[in-house]
């Protein structure tokens, strides 16, 4: 079954947004690598790879529904942050925007009575709950340790242990 034009256009916008997210997280990884926070850099490198995978899922989905993928230029992203707290606050705000976008896609799929797209988007909805919760936990931990170097070092080590696991949904 072919995907409708309006929904295909919206998914193309989401593909571009996912690639922008990857670029945003890569900028964060590079910044924190350069600041000597290798664990934080690792965490953001994993985020970068996840966002690329999310875009690929949407691309594959459009192809499976006989839609056309239209890649667009990626806008500039922020390049530096004053603190880890600012970085993760930006991350949470961004993930909340991604959640809003996914919900809007779901609403459009519902309006278009495209049940296959709604089903596919269920995975993204659950993923966004997890993304926001993970970032909030890091923010809570940063708030707990404040400027304590030992606490920041421990958080950096924990974030350095994160590994990329390809999404099971494709």
A few lines on this structure:
This protein has five helices and no strands. The protein has 170 residues and is mainly α. The protein has one domain: Ferritin, CATH 1.20.1260.10.
List keywords for this structure.
Ferritin; mainly alpha; 170 residues; 5 helices; elongated
Describe the structure.
- This protein is mostly helical and 170 residues long.
- It has a single domain, classed as Ferritin, CATH 1.20.1260.10.
- Helices cover 75% and strands 0% of the residues.
- The protein has 5 helices and no strands.
- It has helices at residues 5-34, 38-64, 84-111, 115-145, 149-160.
- Helix 1 packs antiparallel against helix 3.
- The longest helix is centred in the C-terminal third of the chain and has 31 residues, at 115-145.
Describe the largest sheet: none
Sequence of secondary-structure elements = HHHHH
The shape is: elongated
> Structural class, judged by helices and strands?
mainly alpha
Low-confidence stretches: none
CA radius of gyration is 17 Å
Which percent band covers the strand fraction?
under 5%
Distance between the ends:
17 Å
Going by CATH, the homologous superfamily would be Ferritin, core subunit, four-helix bundle
CATH architecture: Up-down Bundle
Number of helices: 5
Oligomer: single chain
Number of strands: 0
How many distinct folded domains?
Answer: 1
Helix content: over 70%
* The first-level CATH class name: Mainly Alpha
């Amino acid at each position: 079954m072919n995907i409708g034009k309006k929904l295909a256009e919206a998914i193309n916008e989401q593909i571009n947004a996912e690639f922008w997210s990857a670029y945003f997280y890569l900028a964060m990884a590079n910044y924190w690598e350069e600041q000597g926070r290798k664990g934080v850099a690792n965490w953001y490198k994993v985020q970068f790879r996840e966002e690329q995978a999310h875009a690929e899922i949407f691309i594959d989905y459009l192809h499976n529904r006989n839609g056309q993928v239209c890649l667009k230029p990626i806008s500039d992203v922020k390049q530096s942050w004053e603190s880890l707290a600012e970085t993760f606050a930006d991350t949470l705000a961004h993930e909340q925007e991604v959640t809003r976008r996914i919900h809007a896609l779901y609403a459009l799929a519902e309006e278009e009575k495209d049940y296959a797209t709604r089903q596919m988007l269920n995975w993204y909805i659950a993923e966004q709950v997890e993304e926001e919760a993970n970032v909030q936990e890091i923010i809570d931990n940063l708030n707990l340790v404040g400027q304590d170097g030992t606490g920041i070092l421990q958080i950096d080590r924990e974030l350095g242990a994160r590994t990329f696991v390809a999404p099971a949904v494709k």
